[in-house]
Please model this.
Amino acid sequence: MRIKNINKSFGDKDILKNFTANLNTGLRIGLLGGNGVGKSTLLKLLSKKIEPDTGSVDHADHVKIVYFDQLRESLHQQKTIKQFLADGNDTVIFKDRPVHIVSWIKRFGFESQQLNSPIASLSGGEQARILIARLMLQPADILLLDEPTNDLDIRTIETLEDNLMEFGGLLVIVSHDRYLISRVCGLFIGFTADARAELFADYEQWEESLKTHKKEIDNARKTDKDKRPKKEKTKLSYKEKLELENIEKQIEILDDKIKLLESRLNDPENASDFILLNEVTKEIASNKEALDKFYHRWEELSDTR
Model:
């Protein structure tokens, strides 16, 4: 896949600017970035589900692309598990070999008596497992996966991970499961800032890039602030003083909470608990967002004090 200077925006919002890369077979790539930065949009651009505003995405001839989000759309609620996975047959084909349908569904936590259960009768987690069972049967040169681990249990995530590690084509995956993509992927495309995306060797390198960029922005803001004419300070009202005291307490509480959560995230005993790690990662991000808001307000009030 050859990606050359692609740009994409929706209305006034730039999603991606001047991204270029050559992605070859055998690469397993994780897409990194916060919510809403454009990871799913990039996947759709790679699949040609949507077109870039400028630039180009070219595939090698005759490649077979499987896009996981499209599989969700194919989840016909009235079909049975057997119809959905095997078109009603007793076997499925996995890696060019026939596998009995009962053996196949048992890999994903289902029992033989569920073969004729309609998809509509399954829980959200069971439907997610059926999608993974279907995904693993798709012959593909390029796999594009958008949050495939949502609603999956640990056993199914491990099955998915094993199959992705064996996949010989080009894999591009978006997932909040940091530990899954860190183990599966050997290269990362990370969104940084200003709708830019770059290649990174690992998750930590991308995080370090974000910290460096944030520091540069903070320094630039501080410089701009120093250049502004000094405003005459006004005294805080009683209400604002109370607010400031409360903010300082909240900052301390959130700092301690984030440190505790990060210690849980890095605890080796939790390394295989994907559900817990996913929840902790989301909670850390939520707390850091709240902390940033408190710091912003604290700066406003401190300038007045």
Observations:
- The longest strand covers residues 13-22.
- The CA atoms of residues 16 and 42 lie 8 Å apart.
